[in-house]
Write a structure and sequence with these properties.
Elements (H helix, E strand, L loop, with lengths): L8 H22 L7 H6 L6 H12 L2 H14 L3 H26 L6 H8 L2 H33 L4 H19 L1 H29 L3 H6 L14 H21 L1 H9 L5 H28 L12 H9 L2 H42 L5 H23 L5 H24 L5 H19 L7 H27 L1 H19 L7 H23 L8 H6 L16 H10 L1
Organism: Janibacter cremeus
Pfam families: SSF
Subcellular location: Cell membrane
Length: 566
């Protein structure tokens, strides 16, 4: 490491002012001031075009944490690490769109998935989905602030906490004006800058670190597993847990759902396919920097893999390339942090204030909704800054939150397709899955033959669930069911005696298995009336009275039915 930081305080401050000044200018220009529309603040009118929506989806999925974590995966697991991180993450974006088309068809003008669950099941299901998203978005904010703080501390004389405050303040100032509209429009500029930087920086690092000679001479720094493209260690510790985690992210994450509800319905498929390609190419490319660091024998500063990327930049890049690197990371973390703020404000505006007013039959005040949304952004930023001081592992946070959402995946998907799923089946399955997930994930269970066998059997079921859901989205229930069963049976001989040794993987799979078994079992046993999906569209319309379909004007029958559901 150089004795002096490569960027001075003045340079960093100027870069931050330019970056956040331009994004704030864009946000203010699109702001409608006192006439800001509450629904536009949350979903931009449900009609965003292809270019903006694809760029926003790409920018939101490519966050600083994903760049840092991909590089960490490359450093820890070798040449296949970034593939296991970036490829599966990209494919999960692709797997969203068939489910997304169904969700949008059922709830064309909804704002949050929790709002839909309130109509589909009731208050408990809504609170579970909303609560998990509040937790997930705050953790996501925190991890992005950690990434920003580490970047600024490594490249300038400013310390970590000062960097966190600078990033948090910049993101909050431009997002609070127009909410989701500010997020998606600034995403376009941010993703252009970010992808341009990646195209320049990845080849630059390769040649600066030694190019072809590095790959030949540095191979001695790799273990046999790290040098093996088909590394079982990389798959079991990174690839397999991430497959389960990102599927849960795709279904449970409000930042994704918000873009799903915002894009024009006929553009869902091309939007998600484009984002798949953009994410995969970018994140795998950045992850290869971790592999190059491994070949070069680099030790992360302070033993913290979160420092690896900024350390490489500070050590090996000339000032113009360091500036480009700085912009790339700031753009990636800002594009996701503003999405988290928009998601959190949307949850509070819709699932706390809006739904409470609707259940009581009162008209919704758009002005009050906007005030609540903006206050939510301020409080969420303060909470994330406070937690960022803990400097937790970004990779562990991502896998943990994704696995936690795994408890919700099957109940949520089933609720959009299966008319007989009940509120009790949803609620009990999620709670029992959470109870099973936590002790497995954190190693609280005693390690013995009987307990390991139980975990592994549930894990095999979880494998079938994950594969089955992927196939179901594209090919329907018969192919999904058959594919899931075949996958579980085929992998069982390899999984037995192995899954229990990997806490992140086994925890995720157990969450999927328990939630699926309980939800399906209780649903088959239920004698309730089939649900009418047409009800969802009537009760999840826009809030603002200026919109074409104000949802505050509903019949007495709808109100009575809704109160009965709740």
């Amino acid at each position: 490491m150089p004795t002096e930081p490569p960027l001075g305080i003045v340079t960093v401050v100027v870069l931050l002012l330019l970056f956040y000044g331009l994004t704030m200018y864009m946000s203010v220009k699109i702001s409608r001031g006192d006439k800001e529309n509450a629904d536009d603040y949350m979903t931009a009118g449900h009609g965003i075009g292809f270019g903006i929506s694809a760029a926003s989806m790409t920018a939101t999925w490519i966050w600083a944490s994903s760049m840092y974590a991909s590089a960490t995966s490359g450093y820890l697991y070798g040449i296949s690490g970034p593939i296991h991180y970036g490829l599966w993450g990209a494919l999960m974006i692709l797997f969203i769109y068939p489910f997304g088309k169904r969700i949008r068809a059922v709830a064309p003008r909804a704002h949050t998935l929790a709002q839909v669950m309130a109509v589909r099941h009731g208050r408990s299901s809504q609170l579970m989905l909303a609560g998990s998203n509040v937790l997930g978005s705050v953790i996501s904010l925190m991890s992005n602030f950690i990434a920003g703080g580490a970047l600024i501390a490594m490249l300038s004389p400013l310390n970590f906490i000062q960097g966190v405050f600078a990033i948090a303040g910049g993101v909050l100032l431009y997002t609070i004006w127009s909410g989701f509209r500010a997020s998606v429009l600034t995403d376009f500029a941010q993703v252009v800058a970010m992808l341009g930087a990646v195209v320049v920086l990845v080849p630059a690092f390769f040649f600066i670190l030694g190019g072809v000679d590095l790959l030949r001479e540095g191979s001695a720094n790799l273990t046999p597993q790290q040098s093996n493209f088909f590394s079982s260690e990389a798959f079991l510790k990174q690839g397999a847990p991430y497959i389960a985690a990102v599927l849960a992210y795709a279904i449970g994450n409000q930042t994704i759902a918000q873009r799903l509800f915002a894009v024009r319905e006929d553009l869902i498929k091309p939007t998600f396919i484009t984002a798949t390609i953009g994410y995969g190419a970018t994140v795998i490319g950045v992850g290869m920097l971790g592999v190059l660091a491994l070949y070069a024998g680099v030790d992360p500063a302070g033993g913290d893999p979160n420092n690896l990327l900024p350390q490489l930049a500070a050590t090996h890049l000339a000032t113009p390339l360091i500036v480009l690197f700085f912009v790339m990371i700031i753009g990636s973390l800002s594009s996701t942090a503003d999405s988290d703020l928009a998601a959190l404000s949307s949850i509070v505006m819709t699932d706390i204030y809006g739904q409470t007013a609707r259940r009581s039959g009162r008209a919704v005040s758009p002005r009050t909704m906007l005030l609540i949304g903006r206050l939510t952004m301020v409080l969420a930023t303060a909470a994330a800054v406070s937690f960022a001081a803990l400097e937790l592992s970004i990779l562990d946070l991502l896998v943990f939150v994704g696995a936690l959402w795994g408890c919700l995946v099957f109940p949520v998907i089933a609720s959009f397709y299966w008319k007989k799923v009940t509120n009790s089946a949803f609620t009990v399955s999620v709670l029992l899955a959470l109870v099973a997930f936590l002790p497995v994930r954190f190693g609280w269970l005693p390690r013995n033959t009987g307990m390991d066998l139980a975990v592994e059997l549930l894990g095999i079921v979880g494998i079938g669930v994950v594969i089955g859901l992927m196939l179901f989205g594209f090919f329907g229930p018969r192919v999904g069911l058959a594919g899931g069963i075949i996958a579980a049976l085929a992998l069982a001989p390899f999984a037995l005696g192995l899954i229990a040794d990997y806490a992140a993987l086994s925890g995720s799979l157990v969450a999927y298995a328990v939630s699926t078994l309980v939800c399906a079992g209780m649903t088959f046993a239920s004698r309730g009336e089939p649900f009418d999906f047409d009800v969802i569209a009537r009760r999840t319309g826009d809030f603002d009275p200026e919109d074409d379909e104000p949802s505050t004007t509903r019949s007495a029958t709808d109100l009575d039915d809704e109160r009965a559901t709740v």
